[in-house]
Amino acid sequence: MDLSDENPFGKAFxxxxxxxxxxxxxxxxxxxxxxxxxxxxxxxxxTFRFGGQLKNFIxxxxxxxxxxxxxxxxxxxxxxxxxxQEGLITLYLDQKAGSYIDLMVDLTxxxxxxxxxxxxxxxxxxxxxxxxxxxxxIHSGYTHGSLRFRKNSASPSPTVASTVSRTxxxxxxxxxxxxxxxxxxxFQGLSTCQICQNFLWGLSSQGLRCKDCxxxxxxxxxxxxxxxxxxxxxxxxxxxxxxxxxxxKAAKGxxxxxxxxxxxxIEKRGLGIEGIYRVSGSKELIERLKLLFxxxxxSTDLSAHLDIHSMCCLVKLFLRLLSQPLVTAEVxxxxxxxxxxxxxxxxxxxxxxxxxxxxxxxxxxxxxxLHRVSLNSDRNRMTAFNLSSVFTPSVICPTxxxxxxxxxxxxxxxxxxxxxxILYPQTTVLVQS
Length: 433
Known about the structure:
Blueprint: E1 13-16, H1 19-25, E2 32-36, E3 44-50, E4 53-62, E5 67-70, H2 80-110, E6 119-120, E7 129-130, H3 133-140, H4 160-172, E8 181-185, E9 207-210, E10 216-217, H5 244-250, H6 257-269, H7 283-296, H8 308-321, H9 329-337, H10 344-350, H11 357-375, H12 377-380, H13 384-395, H14 403-418, H15 420-423
Parallel strand pairs: 1-2
Antiparallel strand pairs: 2-3, 3-4, 4-5, 6-7, 7-8, 8-9, 9-10
Helix pairs in contact: 2-4, 5-11, 6-8, 6-11, 7-8, 8-13, 11-14, 13-14
């Protein structure tokens, strides 16, 4: 059947094509065509290849103006080539610079739109209130660029703009945003609201204060608070068993001070000690060190503590007590379901890209340390395999513990240690003389 008179798309129109036939025609990124799936289909489909995949969008044409449209006709295009070019550019920008664009949009929208209503969060606290910035972004949504594509109606799916928003939200989940944890508070003396700068009047229960960062506001101003809590170390109720994101944010983006202080001391005095991290320390000394860190916080001095093995056990205890394991269950599940042998690319894709930022920072610090320990294995007898066997139960906590999960977990940690030069190329190593 000759359809040349039924469409305005010229040579770009290829008649009735199935998905398989279209795949054979569009071999390279940027190639495109217009097609119909079958004689009963009223819609023209614009199909182009991007990122190795075919993208399909409903295409229309206004014969009175000569303009081309996709989806909801929010924007007109003078030619099919112009439409495809803008679509490819939009998808490319989102793929290569989406996180930066999201950040600029977020900063702009923060000053222009109101935040969501507070959500009561019992969580064992009286009058606890938390604000979730991510939910705000999910529900409000925005159009990324000027192009809004919609896929074919026979297989209902979101517009490209909404698809972009969803992938952007997935990226945001990797950001370590922490909501405030507000509680009704009685302030001693005159205090001011950090939003409106007016006094918090009254004899008791004058306002709300975040239990993590001590941010103070009127109850009437709480909806204007931007949900990015910056906690102080001193305000965290307990260090061991705390959330890793909370500890890293309190350390201004650095690793938790417990790990930093212990590992620094271990590398000064213990890289050559036989059985490091394998030999058990004194339970009494471990508990004493734990209480010291809880009390002294960043002022803790370890120079007078001579038992390196107890210090090593404290490192493992700290990791084991984290509210969420260093290698999260969600990320570790990817290794459990992966097909084929473990590769460096899998480590990079899963651990260096999918973990929350605070977990990435801490994991890198730990793995670099274990790599340095393994380089001294001729004296300490702790190879990468030995270290991975010891640390796996503390670093990885699968939903179901079995010999298989422990075996895979050990392989992952060992591969991280041995592939430090590839995964973290711009780092130095230390072999203790």
